[in-house]
Amino acid sequence: MTPLDHSAAVAAETTRFVAAVRQADPALPVPSCPDWTLADLVRHTGSVQRWFTVLLRQRIQEPPRSRDVDLRLPERPEEYPAWLAEAAEQAASTFTQTDLDAPMWAWGADQHARFWVRRMLFETLVHRVDAELALGLDPDIEPALAADGVAEFLTNLPFAAFFAPGTAELRGDDRTIRFTRTDGDGDWLVRLRSDGFGLDPHGADATADATVRATAADLLLLLYRRLDRTAGRIELSGDDELLALWFAKSAF
């Protein structure tokens, strides 16, 4: 697969997000983010983009002590879409001025500046999907981008316990779950051990205790809880209890 340009994809996903919400009612509820409105969704996404941009500019080498950022949030929610577009412009400018291969603290596996660009991308993409679902639209995700999102999620989830505490309970006696993409190359084996869990880089030929099969886009939406595992287009097989544990404790 051709390497993805995460920087360009952040801009593209933000453009799609802004286009979806620009004329929408800011007070519209977002079912996939309970208790949030579209205004909350846009404010959250723009805030995250601005915070990550600050981290990249500072090229932090240790966990930040504060998440305080000058958001310059407009007073009127109707102005939030333009404000989100400005956040992406600021991020794009920072990307071009940053060596994305430079060492940098990150909460996930990849301790380089590029981690934050990739994380910003999927934070934006998933919330773009949330907005479109709230508006009754059928979200579309480019398959290669979705597959990269699946890999990013499964790679970083073992490091997410400080904000996703349920993951600390993803333990097992060498039990495995395979996530298989049905619309192209993509296969990920997650191994649950007594001391933790994570992707098995040597699991291509291993027999899995449970298997989840779907398109790359549906796998991504499933992992982020934007699609229920009972959906007809999700194929589940193997150990039901293991799958139940995964879906109960892997919320990001």
Question: Notable features of this structure?
Answer:
252 residues, alpha+beta, Four Helix Bundle (Hemerythrin (Met), subunit A), Nonspecific Lipid-transfer Protein, Chain A, 2 domains
What does this molecule look like?
- The protein has 252 residues and is α+β, with helices and mostly antiparallel strands.
- The protein has two domains: 6-140, Four Helix Bundle (Hemerythrin (Met), subunit A) (Up-down Bundle), CATH 1.20.120; 145-249, Nonspecific Lipid-transfer Protein, Chain A (2-Layer Sandwich).
- Helices cover 42% and strands 11% of the residues.
- Strands 3-2-1-4-5 form a five-stranded mixed beta sheet.
Topology overview:
Layout: H1 6-21, H2 38-58, H3 80-96, H4 114-134, H5 143-156, E1 175-181, E2 187-193, E3 196-199, E4 210-214, H6 216-223, E5 235-238, H7 240-249
Parallel strand pairs: 1-4
Antiparallel strand pairs: 1-2, 2-3, 4-5
Count of alpha/pi helices: 7
Gyration radius over CA: 18 Å
Please report the total strand number as a whole number.
5
How many domains comprise the coordinates? 2
Strand content: 5-15%
**What is the structural class?**
alpha+beta
Strand order of the largest sheet: 3-2-1-4-5
* Average pLDDT number: 96
CATH class of the largest domain: Mainly Alpha
Gross geometry: globular
The helix content, as a percent range, equals 40-55%
Parts with pLDDT < 50 across at least 5 consecutive residues: none
The biggest beta sheet is recorded as: 5 strands, mixed
